[in-house]
Amino acid sequence: DYLLIGSIASGVFLSNDYGNTWINIGNKIEGLTVNSFEISNGYIFVGTSQGVWKRPLSEIFYNINETVSKMDFNLYPNPTESISYLYFPGTEGQTKNVTLFNLSGQVIQKCSFKTESSTIDLSEFKTGIYFVRISSDTKQYELKLIKL
């Protein structure tokens, strides 16, 4: 099962694990307002503030399956009471950018690191659901992070 979602601030994302991990499938429309979705005749159509974006579903699902199988990091614990750890084995020296969003899409924390691991400290934030965007020069992921 797949779930497609649009976001006012972030473009179009897909999850194939019940919303735990989100992968950007609409990087050409990132930052545009998504007004509507439609899936018809093997295509996804996304109405944006600047027109219609169209892409074959076969291309999206092929690329997503390949990307999901190559996710080479861990975020744990999730859910967490305060601190979660990011671990990227074999990436020492490569820059990873981490952005934390609340449910309204507001950026509430940002950091960059070049080590294999880092932390996300939610101790000052309310209990709830947050989204973590992790990006490097070649990849971008969005994950749901739950604070207990």
Overview of this structure, please?
The chain is mainly β and 148 residues long. It has one helix at 57-69; strands at 3-7, 11-15, 21-24, 34-40, 43-48, 51-56, 74-76, 83-87, 96-101, 107-113, 117-121, 128-135, 140-147. Strand 7 (74-76) and strand 8 form a beta hairpin. The model is unreliable at 64-70 (pLDDT under 50).
Q: Strands, helices and their partners?
A:
Layout: E1 3-7, E2 11-15, E3 21-24, E4 34-40, E5 43-48, E6 51-56, H1 57-69, E7 74-76, E8 83-87, E9 96-101, E10 107-113, E11 117-121, E12 128-135, E13 140-147
Describe this protein with a few key phrases.
mainly beta; three-stranded antiparallel beta sheet; 1 helix
Return the average pLDDT rounded to an integer: 78
Order of helices and strands: EEEEEEHEEEEEEE
Weakly predicted, low-confidence segments: 64-70
Q: Which sequence of strands runs across the widest sheet? A: 1-2-3-13-12-9-10
Number of distinct beta strands: 13
The biggest beta sheet is recorded as: 7 strands, antiparallel
Strand content: over 45%
Q: What proportion of the residues is helical, as a percent range?
A: under 10%
- Cα Rg: 16 Å
> What would you call the structural class?
mainly beta
Shape from CA axes? globular
Number of helices: 1
Distance between the termini: 27 Å
Compact summary:
With 148 residues, this protein is mainly beta.
